[in-house]
Amino acid sequence: MDFALTSEHELIREMAAKFGRQEVLPGLTERDREGKSDRTLLDKMGEAGILGVSIPEVYGGSGSDYVSLGLVCEELERADTSARVVLSVHSGLHCLTLLQWATEEQKKRWLPKLASGERVGGFGLTEPNAGSDAINIQTHARKDGDSYVLNGEKTWISLADYADQFLVIARLQEPGDKARHAAFIVERNTPGFSSRPIKGKLGVRAGNTGQIFFDNLRVGAENRIGEDGDGFKVAMSALDHGRYTVASGAVGIIVACLEASTEYARSRKVSGEEIGRKQLVQQMIAHMAASRDIGRLLYYQVGWMKNTGIRHTREVSMAKWQNCNNAFQSASDAIEIHGAYGYCDEFPVERYFRNSRGAVIYEGTREIHTLVQAEYALGYRTDRPLARTLPKWPVKA
Ligand code: CAA
Asked: Which residue among 236, 363, 366, 370 is best mutated to probe the pocket of ligand 1, counting the most ligand atoms within 8 A of its Cβ?
């Protein structure tokens, strides 16, 4: 296990950091304040090659390894969570899941356009009455000859109004039957598809989140990912990839909190002394520094396991759980250090606080990851090798 970053990693990290500085940060405070997402950011991400990160060259991507995706997520979220969320759904939940589960024909059909940014991918699992209880989704796919007819709705869908196609999980029979889900690529322009945004979010206000609806939407069997009955496994695989992007992105928030807090603590004086000299402030700064280093080790490990083709469901759950908790704690401490200045958007730390709260909930709540980790430790849950794995890096056709 060698966690030293290569010169390619450093280049890709710097490219993402520059993109964050030049394309995400300008105008962000206003967009966040007004709850406006910027659709052109997706085009810019496509042009910069960011949407093709970790998609193999044979399918039109950059061919970079899976660690690279984590590095890009860290740097994008250092600028703003809304930019990292794009990679979570497009690259993590959508593209890597296709790489793992789609047929060769399906990969050739979709991945090149997704890699170039000509198309943007989304993901649909969560429903109004099924979040943690993902197995009991109600969206229904009725088989009709060579196609399926979908009815239902999905909520809390990132890029609901922008993605061109969604990886949608539906049930084929009754709720509670593990073996009877299926996964489909649903394209936005299919009759019966509609979307609407969710307004009034606490955080990620510069990002698009919404609901998607299927009203007798007909999808051909050629759009089914995996076989009938694979849908829940496809969903859980997707979460292995999505949680990786959330875990690595959370480190970006921790880094941003550390940067803002150290700068402020060195400039703000109390009774003639920098507040950075105060031990209680130092305690919070030290926790942020430890969270950054531990967070990187946790996600680098997952990236390495992805590269080498090892199942990492336990490790990615641990990384997502710990890094999101630590990002939220770091953001809270950053506000503490900034005092009243931390309470308004003159400084970015209140945005880090609101943005980091969501990630404690989505892609597996803090409670779900706590229970899952306890089950692993107690021996009630084990990760058996998977029949369908993400291809090892470097990927050949
Ligand atoms: N990869 C492939 N297959 C997997 C898998 C993985 N990572 N994890 C499980 N499976 C397979 C298992 O092998 C098993 O198959 P067999 O029966 O053939 O052995 C099957 O799936 C069921 O697995 P489990 O028994 O582990 O399933 P469970 O019922 O115990 O899972 C749970 C419970 C862990 C709580 C799971 O339901 C879960 O993770 N829930 C949280 C869902 C979640 O994170 N939702 C967020 C959605 S995305 C989102 O958040 C977007 C947004 O809102 C912004």
From this structure: 236
